[in-house]
């Protein structure tokens, strides 16, 4: 690839994230990102300072995008149990296929290792739970239950990815929302092996 003279930082960080998803965080080096971007390793060092700083900037970009998508989904959410299910099913569409989901778990490991990113994740989860609580008046803690079930549904889907992820999430969370709202729950479980 011919050397580029310039590339915006966000584009470099997108490429870094893609590399992390494809090959794992350990594969992110200045040389690897230089090969992907067409920039020189020296340019990357000047911009980011160190490999950990570049990886952290890429993870921060991913969190910013997730927070933005979540805020938009919350703003569009109807304050009903069905709205809560639709919100979380919609957020699930970004996970892609099983390979993309599994690759994302490698990247999540990096978030869990960093105290500041863990704190950011906690704030994100608390905000999401609070938004979902508004969908279940008189049911304090429903939001935390819903997002916990959501993450569990994603993991179980990973073992049997035979249906679209958002459909599995909607079925699983629909069952829980029904319980919380005092409605009948479907007899057939959403996740099958």
TrEMBL record:
<keyword id="KW-0614">Plasmid</keyword>
<dbReference type="InterPro" id="IPR009057">
    <property type="entry name" value="Homeodomain-like_sf"/>
</dbReference>
<feature type="DNA-binding region" description="H-T-H motif">
    <location>
        <begin position="29"/>
        <end position="48"/>
    </location>
</feature>
<dbReference type="InterPro" id="IPR001647">
    <property type="entry name" value="HTH_TetR"/>
</dbReference>
<feature type="domain" description="HTH tetR-type">
    <location>
        <begin position="6"/>
        <end position="66"/>
    </location>
</feature>
<dbReference type="GO" id="GO:0003677">
    <property type="term" value="F:DNA binding"/>
</dbReference>
<dbReference type="Pfam" id="PF00440">
    <property type="entry name" value="TetR_N"/>
</dbReference>
<protein>
    <submittedName>
        <fullName>Transcriptional regulator, TetR family</fullName>
    </submittedName>
</protein>
<keyword id="KW-0238">DNA-binding</keyword>
């Amino acid at each position: 690839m011919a050397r580029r003279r310039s590339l915006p930082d966000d584009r470099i960080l997108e490429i870094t994230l893609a590399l992390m998803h494809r090959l794992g965080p350990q594969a992110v080096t200045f040389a690897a990102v230089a090969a992907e971007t067409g920039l020189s390793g020296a340019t990357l060092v000047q911009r980011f300072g160190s490999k950990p700083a570049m990886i952290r900037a890429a993870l921060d970009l991913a969190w910013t995008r997730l927070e933005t998508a979540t805020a938009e989904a919350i703003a569009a959410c109807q304050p009903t149990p069905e709205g809560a299910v639709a919100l979380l099913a919609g957020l699930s569409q970004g996970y892609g296929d099983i390979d993309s989901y599994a690759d994302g778990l490698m990247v999540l490991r990096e978030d869990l290792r960093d105290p500041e990113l863990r704190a950011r994740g906690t704030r994100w989860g608390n905000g999401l739970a609070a938004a979902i609580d508004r969908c279940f008046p008189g049911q304090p803690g429903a939001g935390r239950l819903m997002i916990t079930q959501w993450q569990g549904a994603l993991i179980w889907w990973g073992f049997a990815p035979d249906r679209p992820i958002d459909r599995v999430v909607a079925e699983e969370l629909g069952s829980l929302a029904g319980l919380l709202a005092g409605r009948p729950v479907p007899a057939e479980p959403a996740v099958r092996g």
